[in-house]
Design goal:
Blueprint lengths: L7 E4 L9 H6 L7 E6 L11 H10 L4 E6 L3 H10 L4 E5 L6 H10 L3 E6 L17 E5 L15 H14 L4 E5 L7 H7 L3 E4 L1 H4 L4 H13 L5
Parallel strand pairs: 1-8, 2-3, 3-4, 4-5, 5-6, 6-7, 7-8
Helix pairs in contact: 3-4, 6-8
The protein binds ribulose-5-phosphate and fe (ii) ion.
Length: about 220
């Protein structure tokens, strides 16, 4: 079984109450990150929020912001999200023109750089980008909406990314996003993921703090659930 160095929970505020985001961020103070889904109605058929909102959230969030950019032309916009206060900025490889330049610009702006892969995008062609990255996001649903079913077939890609990271050395996190919940998180951890995005499984729970603790437990010891 894969043994990632640390297991981190990044609740997605896509499933939070958008009318009370400051309060919703306080509710996840025991998490490691707050996952912020930025959608532009072009790269994905949904529209959420942009830099001004990220800047406002960064000022009140008790945990660092993990910005997942589902937008066209991340080359132009990604560094601005780091400057707005995001501690991690993820661009989609399907949308980026210059992944090396964009990853370097994110780092230069003070954030961790990450690359996301849609379910239909193979990892193989991008393995040489690893030295430019702090994290690889393997999408376990089609990006665009929360509340979708976990795509089991993406676990093979998680294993492939984890194996490549091991081979090359260096500390690069492997994130999964989409349908991650109590019944799926263990298999993600076993495959080698170490950062877990969960929207509905956290904000849909009656007790948000308990949901985060349960996810942490299930990720650390899949045999318990
Ligand atoms: O990037 C996303 C969708 O594109 C969201 O982060 C993701 O779907 C989280 O929601 P859930 O845990 O409810 O599936
Ligand atoms: Fe996301």
């Amino acid at each position: 079984m894969a043994e990632p160095a640390h297991l981190q929970i990044s609740p997605s505020i896509l499933a939070a109450d958008f009318a009370h985001l400051a309060r919703e961020l306080q509710a996840i103070e025991t998490a490691d990150w707050a996952h912020v889904d930025v959608m532009d109605a072009h790269f994905v058929p949904n529209l959420t929020l942009g830099q001004p909102v990220v800047e406002a959230l960064a000022k009140v969030s008790p945990v660092p912001l993990d910005c997942h950019l589902m937008i066209d032309d991340p080359d132009r916009w990604a560094p601005d999200y780091a400057e707005a206060g995001a501690s991690s900025v993820t661009f989609h490889v399907e949308a980026v023109a210059d992944p090396v330049g964009t990853a370097r610009a994110i780092r230069a702006a003070g954030a961790r750089s990450a690359m996301a892969l849609k379910p239909g995008t193979p990892f193989g062609p991008y393995v040489d980008l690893l030295p430019e990255l702090d994290m690889v996001l393997v999408m376990t649903v089609e990006p665009g909406f929360g509340g979708q079913s976990f795509m089991e077939d993406q676990l093979a890609k998680v294993r492939e990314v984890r194996a490549a990271v091991r081979r090359r050395g260096g500390e690069i996190w492997v994130q999964v996003d989409g349908g991650v919940a109590q019944d799926t998180i263990g298999r993600c951890a076993e495959a080698g993921a170490d950062v877990f995005v969960a929207g509905s499984a956290v904000y849909g729970a009656e007790n948000v703090a308990a949901a985060i603790a349960d996810l942490r437990r299930a990720a650390a010891d899949p045999s318990e659930v």
